[in-house]
Amino acid sequence: MKSRLIAFALILGFAVNAHAINLSVSGGWAPTLGAADLAGGAGTGFRSTIESPPAQVNLTISGFVESTPWTIRVQGSSAALPPGVTVAVRPTAEGNCGSLSLGQGYLEVTSFPQDLFSGVGSCSGINLQLQLLGVSIQHAPGNYGAEITYFLVQ
């Protein structure tokens, strides 16, 4: 009886590995702010929001059976940003998916995981747009950054 149980566990292990669920993320954003980003030309502050192109980040979700639901969560670290500056993200294109629920507008990225959108089955070509809020000419010039992590939750 014991040898049968071990054999079953090994077969189950191979079955799980044969259907690997993957989240692939490509893209990034490194804007350089200058005169073109001022709200009204010389002597004014930066626009209230700075946006990336609509397809700045691309997600592909693979390995799911058609009827399997999932959720994409997002969280980040803005420790390397000036005080008061935040990053937000939103999906801008549904890509090639069976079923997708994109949510409403931008979601501010925080240090806690938040649901960004959900779907069913495998998907490719889901585009995301990023946004900076709170950028000010009062911030010292320099290189700043934020880290955004996307999670696939079944």
**End-to-end Cα distance:** 34 Å
Low-confidence segments: 1-18
Which geometry do the CA atoms define? elongated
Count of the separate structural domains: 1
> How many β-strand runs?
9
Helix/strand structural class = mainly beta
Largest sheet: 9 strands, antiparallel
Number of helices: 1
Mean pLDDT: 82
Tell me the series of helices and strands, N- to C-terminal: HEEEEEEEEE
Spatial extent as radius of gyration: 20 Å
Determine the CATH topology: Immunoglobulin-like
Q: Provide the CATH top-level class.
A: Mainly Beta
Strand content: 35-45%
> What share of the residues lie within helices?
10-25%
CATH second-level architecture: Sandwich
Give a description of the structure:
The protein is mainly β and 154 residues long. The protein has one domain: Immunoglobulin-like, CATH 2.60.40. It has one helix at 2-18, and strands at residues 22-27, 49-51, 57-62, 69-77, 86-93, 96-101, 107-108, 114-133, 147-153. Strands 1, 2, 3, 4, 5, 6, 7, 8 and 9 form a 9-stranded antiparallel β-sheet that branches. The longest helix has 17 residues, at 2-18. It is elongated, with a radius of gyration of 20 Å. Residues 1-18 have low confidence and may be disordered.
